[in-house]
Amino acid sequence: MSDAQSSQRGEIVAAAIKGGKKPPLFRQLFEKFSALLLASAIILFWQIYVQVSGVTEFVLPAPTAIAERLILDFPLLISHAVITFSEVIAGFGSAVIIGLPMALIIFYSPIFERSIYPILIALQTVPKIVLAPLLVLYLGYGWAPKIVLAFLISFFPILISSVIGLQSLDKELVNMVRSMGAKEYQIFQKLRLPAALPNVFGGFKVAIYLAVIGAVIGEYVAAEQGLGYLQLQANSQFDTTLNFATVIMISAIGVCLYLILNALGKRISFRRDSAI
Amino acid sequence: MSKDDISEKVNKGARVVLKNLSKVYTTREGKGVHALDEINLDFEPGSFVACVGPSGCGKSTLLSLLAGITRPTCGELYIDNKLIEKPHPKVGVVFQSDLLLYWRTVLDNILLPIEIKKLSSKDYSVKAKDLLKQVGLDGFENKLPTELSGGMRQRAAICRALIQEPDLLLMDEPFGALDALTREQMILDLQKMWMTLGNTILFITHGIEEAVFLADRVLVMSPRPGKIQLDLKIDLQRPRPWSDTHEDPKFAKYVRKVREIFESQGILVDH
Q1: C-alpha torsion sign, points B22, B65, B90, B211
Q2: Does the bond joining B89 to the residue before it have cis omega, within 30 degrees of 0?
């Protein structure tokens, strides 16, 4: 009796060790694609609502109408997207080119850390978009104010997260490599830079979204081209469908750039100090 | 170990001489802290020296002076008659925490000192794998430190110190962060390793029994400013098996002697 019981228990334990039953296939699929399913459901609901309620396209266009417009007006949308994209890249790029060396200077020089860094942190709290009208005043209607705005808005997260990344290094680690006879440049190359990279890329990822916002706001204020300009045009012509299409294009720019940075960050972080 | 079989060992072991060594360091608030006071010591080549003392007695300061990371306020340090002004290439350090770089594999962590010294990583990777094998980590060379247990990580850190073929190995409470069982095994492994390698070891610890078990010589330090309170020669046969050594009345006597110093200072109080 007790033998039979113990062998039964043994089987239960053995089965548990082997692993329980897998959930059924539809459940696995559901769990894997649940976010996608939810998004599809929302769009479907939107589509049905527009068709059932008979709301006019001017108030709320159907998703299919927006998709149709994206395809039909693709050349127009792309020509404006190229402008906005270039402004974003120029603004973000100059923020990287100026922000990273400045982070190094602030980190290595106590004088700069005590004089410039607090001012920069204070400036960070200024909402940069309120400078847009001033930038137009000084720089005109061309690409310059958009790039400067994209630069200003993305500069601070890049600078500050890089400084924090450099400062976050454990002092014990520095002592460890110093005991191996490491020179300062080796400490930077083998230790500080690889340790700071996750922070630096974290700053980049925040900054790239902000750069898109900066460029579009710049275009809202005064522009003759770019997606922000196109959106305002659509708005004034009561073309809500085109309005939605530009929103999608603007979002696509941000998402694409984010994904590129994310992939780049993962690649570099993988073998951080040998990659450099 | 007797003197005559020293030739069988891999390393010759460094002679370490400390002369009138004092260290005062300045805190962030600008206050001077007297960490070490007039230390005079002479370590035999190939000897295992343990240093015990309460927290903040300057043990770690002593270690960082020998590592060449900090400079003494007064006095001199010599390793094999060479005055120490910067890190000595033949000194390896093991810290309390493993300090492995989490973005490097175990193998690349061990090769870090080789890269810093601009030696060929290729040439040393065979040696690195060999060291990993000796500490029971073969097959882990391409793992990341986060995939290892605390004991395994500290073993890897020891390999990183040993790849430099140090004549002097400095160990700063290397097993302090490990659980009791792992620590016991590490102590036994360290003894075995040292008996084959034969380098001079300065082993800093809080553990009296650990110090007596491992060392040829136990230095007991006083609270700040750190001074050598007792310089105790440990005359126990090697190899020292765990249980036999711990049951040896001589071992108990040594432990008691060190304890008495701490009791006389009020650092340990028996109720």
Answers
A1: positive
A2: no
| A12-16, A267-271, B114-118, B256-260, range with the lowest pLDDT | A267-271
Question: Does this complex have an ipTM over 0.90?
Answer: no
Task: Say whether residue B82 is in contact with chain A using an 8 A CB cutoff.
Answer: no
Query: Please, what are the averages of pLDDT over each run of 10 residues along chain A (276 residues)?
Result: 76 77 80 89 95 90 94 95 96 97 94 90 88 91 93 94 92 93 92 91 94 95 92 94 96 94 81 48
pTM, two decimals, is 0.81
CA dist B3 and B61 (Å) reads 31
Q: Which of A126, A131, A141 is nearest to A229 (CA)?
A: A141
Query: Do the Cβ atoms of A269 and B113 come within 8 Å?
Result: no
Measured CA distances, B52 to A98, A163, B45, B215 (Å)? 51, 39, 20, 11
B257 vs B42, B166, B234, CA distance in Å? 22, 32, 11
d(CA B33, CA B27): 7
User: Cβ of B103 and A186 within 8 Å?
Assistant: no
pLDDT at B128 > cutoff 80: yes
Closest-CA distance, B242 to chain A, in angstroms, reads: 31
Mutate to test the interface with B, among A175, A177, A179 (most CBs of B within 10 A): A179
The pair phi, psi for residue A140, each rounded to 5°, is: 90, -165
- Are B101 and A173 an interchain contact pair (Cβ–Cβ within 8 Å)? yes
The H or E element that residue B204 is part of is strand B200-205
CB contact under 8 A, A181 and B116: yes
Within 8 A of B93 by CB-CB distance, chain A residues are 176, 179
Tell me the nearest-neighbour CA distance from A179 into chain B, angstroms: 5
